[in-house]
Amino acid sequence: MAVTRPLLDLVNVTAGYGQTPVLFDVDMSVAEGEIACLLGRNGVGKTTLLRSIIGLNALTSGNIYFNDADITKAPTYKRARKGIAYIPQGREIIPYLTVLDNLKMGFSASGKKAKRIPAEIYDFFPMLKEHLQRQGGLLSGGQQQQLAIARGLMCNPKIILLDEPTEGIQPSIVQEIEDTLRRINIEKGITIIVVEQKIEFARKLAQQFFIMEKGAIVEKGKTDKLADSLLHRYLAV
Ligand SMILES: Nc1ncnc2c1ncn2[C@@H]1O[C@H](COP(=O)(O)OP(=O)(O)OP(=O)(O)O)[C@@H](O)[C@H]1O
């Protein structure tokens, strides 16, 4: 009988930059429909882990399974076509392109010809409709973050990897982003992994947590059981 794996399954993942190892034997499983947060101090390897999942960092050893396929050696564009969207820290909006053209860039990740922007995008992010012809670089940080998430949705992902979506964003927009991510998860069934420094944001949004320290997952569990003692030990909160 075939074994059914979680939607995303990392097994003994080791990776780094050149000769410098950064991730050590990371095991991480995220089930379909779940929201997981990845916590840890600066420099412990959270971004490197997300980059390894989307294929921007090759593994030294270990395997990554997605949707029951071994994607360890698949190039980034194929991972995107299989349904992994990556929204990097800093958002990477093209500043001189309009909001509309930034959105359309998301189509290319799916490998399909550009079509109309689905109405649901404006339903999730009404602000974008008002700014379609503005240059992306003129949006506020919070608006750019919303644009980046919307662009990620254009390839119809099964999972979204988000790196610090609330960084440098004013509280009212942080709340909006939290609500929209929850809607995207519930209404579209999209699985989410979010790297976060804002513990309360992560706690409210995610059902599952992983804590990283020196390139390894040192604690994991349900967020409603995320003890303050762990936060003190690993995040110095
Ligand atoms: N392009 C790179 N080349 C070499 N080393 C890198 C590179 N990017 C990151 N590193 C190193 O890898 C380690 C992990 O960095 P990473 O960005 O993954 O951590 P992080 O937990 O995401 O931190 P932050 O919260 O600051 O983004 C750090 O020691 C960092 O200096």
TrEMBL record:
The keyword Protease does not apply. CDD domains: ABC_TM1139_LivF_branched. SMART domains: AAA (SM00382). Keywords: Amino-acid transport, ATP-binding, Nucleotide-binding, Transport. Coiled coil: none annotated. Residues 8-237 form the ABC transporter domain. SUPFAM superfamilies: P-loop containing nucleoside triphosphate hydrolases (SSF52540). GO terms for molecular function: ATP binding; ATP hydrolysis activity; branched-chain amino acid transmembrane transporter activity. One of its GO terms (biological process) is L-amino acid transport. It comes from the Bacteria. PANTHER family: HIGH-AFFINITY BRANCHED-CHAIN AMINO ACID TRANSPORT ATP-BINDING PROTEIN (PTHR43820:SF5), HIGH-AFFINITY BRANCHED-CHAIN AMINO ACID TRANSPORT ATP-BINDING PROTEIN LIVF (PTHR43820). Belongs to the ABC transporter superfamily. This is Branched chain amino acid ABC transporter, ATP-binding protein, putative.
